[in-house]
Specification:
Blueprint: H1 5-18, H2 23-27, E1 32-34, E2 45-51, E3 55-60, E4 65-69, E5 80-85, E6 94-97, E7 100-104, E8 109-113, E9 123-128, E10 141-143, E11 152-156, E12 171-175, E13 181-186, E14 191-196, E15 202-206, E16 216-219, H3 254-258, E17 269-270, E18 280-285, E19 298-302, E20 307-316, E21 319-328, E22 335-340, E23 345-351, E24 363-369, E25 378-384, E26 387-392, H4 398-401, E27 408-414, E28 424-428, E29 431-437, E30 443-449, E31 456-460, E32 476-480
Antiparallel strand pairs: 1-24, 2-3, 3-4, 4-5, 6-7, 7-8, 8-9, 10-11, 11-12, 12-13, 14-15, 15-16, 16-17, 18-19, 19-20, 20-21, 21-32, 22-23, 23-24, 25-26, 26-30, 27-28, 27-31, 29-30, 31-32
Length: 488
């Protein structure tokens, strides 16, 4: 995608529409510190990992890995960069385990160890190189950190983002501790990142395109099919996860095709294109509660808009679904890698190569941290048989929260088709029948008529105030309603 003056204008308009709050307000809770990069480095961050002794490892799309000392300080101008490894192939995933640094390169997962303490790798071992590659620009391989069983999960972009010319393109595979490759989930198009939630389930972000009406975050269950059938021909190379699923019907809806294709797994949260996200990337989960009030929620990088999104998921009828929210804007480049440290530091890095990014810099590495001031936000939205329960981070003004006019809701989805992307379709306006403030004074039950299974429910909160009469920092949430809970 080429960046033009017109596209830059559109990016700026998009940011103003989707992040209408003053960025100064975001920085009052989550300040960003830019970590200086040596002048002689073209970094283009592809992966970030937390190392012992307050060090971090940072990888580059250009194939280099550096150990950074001093990244946690408020003034990191004296940070120190040591080359851990140089000349690898587009490293888009880092994981530290038992003294080894694992790197997901385009052709393989490699592990490296420093044996003499100089922060430079001395031992290089190939863990697995069992998938196919050719010279195509889009054949990315994004790797996770280790799951609870010690596996690294790798999501493999399609050839040209629309074909499958190399083995297992369009698949997620697991690399076991002993180096075996396990084909795991089919249906991937163009991933931008991968990560686990707090219980160890794996998710990835897929970008708008063929069979993806809009970008989204999707779970990766073993044996599942997540929507794009292009790579499904590689079922013939494995018997590990069953037979090839039936191909979906182009022009349909995901909710309709789910009834026909048992293996089809819907997106956990769709990101409205042109409103919230155009290029979602890395995924981080706050498992410690040190990153503010959002413990166990997911944070997603956004490359085009140079932002980070927040996703609060739940499981209904065994299916992941939930709400996506704006979180933090005004990063310096196009965010690709997102990594949360145990102290509440979020390291974010990226590049504008290939797409362009609103941040303005060719590449950047930054630290965003929670400063202890809790923002007034929608904490999460929960589906109910007759509507939604909305939870806030602070106590709310009861009169504002009980007024129906304090809320607006719209409903829509996207065409599930073989063509590129989709317009917004199937628009409707559900009716909010009542708003009941619950006993904790931090949540509201919205009784709603006209919920639509499979659609995004965009809920705005223009009238909500806290006890200090302040507005929400971000006043919109996008809930993907894959399943409607059964009445008890």
């Amino acid at each position: 995608m080429r960046t033009t003056l017109y596209s830059i204008f559109i990016l700026n308009c998009f940011y103003l529409n989707s992040h209408s709050q003053n960025p100064t307000e975001e920085s009052n809770h989550y300040p960003i510190t830019e970590i200086p990069i040596p002048d002689n480095l073209v970094l283009e961050v592809g992966g970030i990992e937390i190392l012992p002794d307050n060090k971090i490892a940072v990888s580059s799309r250009r194939g280099d890995i550096y150990v950074v000392e001093g990244a946690y300080t408020e003034n990191p101008d004296d940070d120190k960069w040591t080359p851990w490894a140089i000349g690898l192939h587009e490293v888009l995933g880092l994981a530290w385990k038992d003294g080894w640094l694992y790197a997901t390169q385009r052709p393989e997962v490699t592990r490296m160890k420093d044996t003499d303490g100089d922060l430079r790798a001395d031992i290089f071992e190939s863990v697995s190189s069992a998938w196919g590659i050719n010279g195509d620009y889009h054949e990315y391989a994004f790797g996770s950190r280790h799951d609870p069983e010690g596996n690294i999960w790798v999501v493999l972009c399609l050839t040209g983002s629309g074909g499958a010319s190399s083995d297992f393109r369009g698949w997620c595979v697991r690399i076991t501790p002993d180096g075996k490759m396990l084909p795991t989930t089919s249906g991937i198009r163009s991933p931008g990142g991968i990560g686990q939630n707090h219980v160890g389930d794996m998710f990835y972000c897929d970008n708008q395109g063929l069979w993806n009406g809009t970008s989204s975050i999707k779970p990766l269950p073993v044996g599942g099919f997540v929507g794009n059938p292009t790579g499904n021909k590689y079922y013939e190379l494995t018997e590990a996860i069953g037979k090839r699923p039936k191909d979906p019907k182009s022009g349909s809806r995901i909710s309709i095709e789910r009834d026909k294709i048992p293996e089809l797994i819907p997106p956990a949260a769709m990101f409205p294109h042109g409103k919230l996200s155009n290029s979602p990337t890395g995924i981080a989960c706050d498992t410690t509660g040190e990153f503010g009030p959002f413990k166990n929620q997911l944070f997603v990088g956004e490359q085009t808009m140079s932002t980070v999104l927040r996703v609060a998921l739940e499981k209904i009828n065994g299916v992941y679904q939930g709400a996506a929210f704006p979180f933090r804007g005004r990063f310096k480049s196009g965010n690709v890698a997102v990594r949360l440290g145990p102290d509440g530091s979020m390291f974010v890095g990226g590049t504008d190569r290939g797409w362009g990014a609103r941040g303005g810099k060719r590449f950047a590495l930054e630290r965003c941290h929670f400063n202890g001031k809790v923002p007034f936000e929608v904490l999460k939205i929960e589906a109910k048989p007759d509507g939604f329960k909305v939870n806030f981070t602070e106590e709310i003004n009861k009169s504002s929260a009980a007024a129906i006019e304090s809320y607006t809701i719209s409903c829509y989805t996207y065409i599930y088709q073989s063509g590129y992307g989709s317009p917004v379709v199937d628009k409707s306006t559900p009716i909010i029948k009542s708003a009941t403030v619950l006993e904790d004074n931090k949540s509201v039950h919205l009784k709603i008529e006209g919920l639509v299974k499979g659609n995004i429910h965009e809920i705005n909160f223009p009238g909500i105030r806290n006890l200090n009469d302040n507005n929400l920092l971000h006043s919109v949430g996008y809930y993907t309603l894959n399943e409607i809970p059964l009445k008890k």
